[in-house]
UniProtKB/TrEMBL annotation:
Keywords, ordered alphabetically: Arsenical resistance, ATP-binding, Nucleotide-binding, Translocase
Gene: arsA
Keyword Acyltransferase: no
SUPFAM superfamilies: P-loop containing nucleoside triphosphate hydrolases
Function: Anion-transporting ATPase.
Family the UniProt entry places it in: Belongs to the arsA ATPase family.
InterPro entries according to UniProt: AAA+_ATPase, Ars_ATPase, ArsA/GET3_ATPase-like, ATPase_ArsA/GET3, P-loop_NTPase
The protein, known as: Arsenical pump-driving ATPase
Keyword match Nucleotide-binding: yes
E.C. no: 7.3.2.7
Coiled coil: none
GO molecular function: ATP binding; ATP hydrolysis activity; ATPase-coupled arsenite transmembrane transporter activity
Amino acid sequence: MNALSQPTRFLFFTGKGGVGKTSLSTATAIALADAGKKVLLVSTDAASNLDEMLGIVLANTPVAVPGAPGLSVLNIDPDTAAHAYRQRVLAQMGAGTSEAELSAVREQLSGACTTEIASFDEFASLLSSDDTRFDHIVFDTAPTGHTLRLLSLPKAWSGFLAGNDRGASCLGPHSGLKMQEARFKAALDALSDPAQTTVVLVTRPDKGAIAEAARTSDELRTLGLNNQRLVINGCFHATDPADMVAASIEALGEQAIAQMPASLLALPQDRVPLRQFDTVGLPALRALLGSAPAPALQVRATADDHVDQFLGLGSLADELALAGRGLIMVMGKGGVGKTTVAAALALGLIQRGNTVHLSTTDPAAHLAVTLQGEVPGLNVDRIDPKVETQRYIDKMMAAKSPGLDAQEQALLLEDLQSPCTEEVAVFHAFSRVVSEARSAFVVLDTAPTGHSLLLMDATGAYHRQMMRDYEGLGAARVVTPLMRLQDAAYTKIILVTLPEVTPVSQAAALQTDLRRAGVDPYAWVLNKSVLAAGTSDPLLGARLNGERVQLERISGGLASRLFVVPWLVHAPVGVEQLSKLACPAHSQMQAS
């Protein structure tokens, strides 16, 4: 990668989920460390899998990586960051503060927006620090929508603090935030300085991933991050043109690259070939960028895969339709095909005589691009953070401003324009969509795992608050969004994954988190199975060994129900192709 020839101090790897940000950022950090540099690799993803990839336990402080001298890893864990932030704010309140005042501040600091600002505070400290322990800091970021939110916060908070000398109620006393103003400004300066920061846009040779990279590039420029370069990961060339699966993978990739927007074509570009091994462990990560021999592979026999025993999306749609109504939440790591599966299931329910509301909580929504058409009985929309924030502000102003004078109204509006209002507004919109499933089908295409977990945290915090508020006052009659998610007759969670070690591990971790909240997934969907499609290509054949391991891992205890979608020669884009995935005629999995 040419990005390694003259690297800046800060390197941000961002892009659509599933494009290989973690693998490439980690391989880059290792290469820099192998070259004698002191490197800190930072994950800003709440659903990071760096621990599995490097075989270490992540922490909120730098952890040295055995076998890679000079490399340390740090994970910005939202819960840990929020706890530390609360302690710092409370410590500033002074000895004369009453217990009632401390209790009020603790309550103010219990919301989801405090978690966001605390995570951002950790992130900003790395950008604004003069710490000389590290020559380079490499950021492995969360999928695009969440990352754009993170990178926009330096400007948002700097602007908010500049015009506010009182503070935002959701963040506790203003002194707890005002002291960070210089840090936020330093973070913004570092991000905007091309001599200090490079943004590496990672994509795959895939139309959707490339389109998102182009949108991300444009949005980053509006934030002042102009030093960008592009990496196309997983470039594939078929060995046997007669192998339809291999040929279609190559053709789709070449077509996507050929149609790349001019804004991306203008960027410095690197291409990384598709490898025959999973990028787990130091040998594989060093081999990813061609700096070391590929790890040895043990090829397994292919005669007894039994992949045809698993049913497809048609059977899943049959089961879901029996309820007649309910919430279907499609969740998983970014890039595993959640949007495709959600859209296909929605169309499958339409085919079975139902009306469906299909929506998404993903800031980088792709539903319209995936469907490319309208269907009778299907209502499609998205929870747009900007729209929902303005709607929430308007609602709160209408409810609270009567009786206030002009100055008090101006102060109320100022507080509502805090950047953390967005998190509250999105949660309210999510709750509204969840409640619709009382009388109809609602299919919700969720944001990638980390962002969805933050939304679940907000749901849990709201539930606890409601139970406290109504304790002894009819709490038994209160129904919160969390209670609806915990009701297996009301909500069915579908976990989508790919037949690769990282997506499966993240789906398993998400399932554990959900069960901890009292929410048990209904089924797993293994998407883009080359094993189910069949191939004779040597490189793809080598990758099938890993797919067999993951298939056995899922069916051997992770999933109570497993449905398999084969790799499709024709991309599942548009109503016609999506309708084929879950139509009643496809009750048994087909590879067409």
